[in-house]
Amino acid sequence: MIKKCLFPAAGYGTRFLPATKAMPKEMLPIVNKPLIQYGVEEAMEAGMTNIGMVTGRGKRALEDHFDVSYELEHQISGTSKESYLADIRNIIDNCSFSYTRQTEMKGLGHAILTGENLIGREPFGVILADDLCVGENDSVLMQMANIYAKYRCSIVAIEEVPHEEVYKYGVIAGSELEDGVYVVSDMVEKPSPEDAPSNLAIIGRYILTPDLFDVIRDTPPGRNGEIQITDALQTQATKNMVLAYRFKGQRFDCGSVEGFVKATNYFYERWKEKEGA
Ligand code: G1P
Q1: Is residue 204 lining ligand 1, measured as CB closer than 6 Å?
Q2: Protein residue with least CA distance to atom 11, ligand 1
Q3: pTM of the model
Q4: Beta-carbon contacts of residue 115 (< 8 Å; ≥ 6 apart)
Q5: How many angstroms separate the alpha carbon of residue 53 from the centre of ligand 1?
Q6: Could you tell me the CATH number of the domain that includes residue 127?
Q7: Which residues in the chain land under pLDDT 70?
Q8: Host domain of residue 22
């Protein structure tokens, strides 16, 4: 039902310097696949084949990745190496890609608003590729799309985090509507542990209704002087229902070196199984 998915991908990835000096952080590989490709595969699995990316300066490799590479493909055509490109070819054949640039880094809310032209007036998914998710059965975005089909409102993915780590996340408070689905009553961006309304942290998967664009336009800068999607969603929650969904599966925080290494180890095991290594 939801066809579009937006990927905010304009950030610098300073935690991975110097690796990210000339290369987008979204192109960092987990084993043999760049982070962004895991995200696009998740969107595709959820039926969201219309991919919009909000990029910035120095991010052209993203566009090239989701395009054919004639020379390379000609070179390996008919060899066993052709199979390495099967997944990316499948994506290129089944998805469409549009890009727009965020010229100033003014926060996640601003990045999503920059994507408005790519989305229009329809509900859409958002994936932050830094959060690499492995769903239990369905992918995390698919799980959320199923909840959207039932309630038709904005939804954020959440997971429980240790209380002392809440300052890294948007944090929600809410009442449980059904198993793992909460009606949001409060939402705070990166609170100190003392001020946090719970330890239910927002992770980088959202389904958003298009009226949120108007809310973002009226949202003043918040934490770190940036326009926060969390603040806009908090406003939306006071007008309409916003849900938080405790997803089934696992998340790797690939924006941190520790999470990146954990994801690498996890996918290396899967890669070995697949290759029969
Ligand atoms: C962003 C959001 C935050 C959310 C997090 C999930 O923060 O602002 O609410 O919890 O993504 O990864 P960032 O990690 O970009 O600072």
Answers
A1: yes
A2: 204
A3: 0.96
A4: 6, 8, 52, 54, 100
A5: 17
A6: 3.90.550.10
A7: 277
A8: 4-276
